[in-house]
Design a protein that fits this description.
The chain has about 150 residues and is of the alpha+beta class. It has 2 domains: about 10-45, no CATH class; about 50-140, Alpha-Beta Plaits (2-Layer Sandwich). It is about 35% helix and about 30% strand. It is built from 4 helices and 6 strands. A 4-stranded antiparallel β-sheet has the order 4-5-3-6, with helices on one face. A two-stranded antiparallel sheet has the order 1-2. A hairpin with a 5-residue loop joins β1 (about 10-15) and β2. α2 (about 60-80) packs antiparallel against α4. It is globular.
Length: about 150
Amino acid sequence: MGNACPLVPERQRWRNPPGLLLFREEWVAVRGASPESHARRRFILTCVIALFVSLNVKPDQRDRFLQVAEDDSVCSVRDEGGGCLRFDVYEDNADQNRFYFHEVYRDQAALDAHRTMPHFQRWSQASAEVLAEPAQRHLCTVRFPKNYK
């Protein structure tokens, strides 16, 4: 299963005259950009995916968890060539050992590439020791906002 997003321009509906629907192709206008970059930008905006992960951490492993989670978060955004658009780590206000990851990727290929990175391997190894139970993951297609950069 993948996130199939063809490289096509977004279409907008225009009513002209009443009752008659017309479609107009609209490319993102970037001054001085090539048609290929327009297509790539539209692709990015229509194929963004998010991952929500709920994590229950062993109380005695909390500090180690925070270290490896920060490493994975910072390195994902910094080192993945724009594939990881966002990687936030949240702590639950009611349970200091419950955390959430909110990750946003350009597309499925970027998420697949993330899973091959050294920082993800460090996270994977440590997670087996710091988590009290398997993580709960939810993969989503981002509908709004459409302007991730």
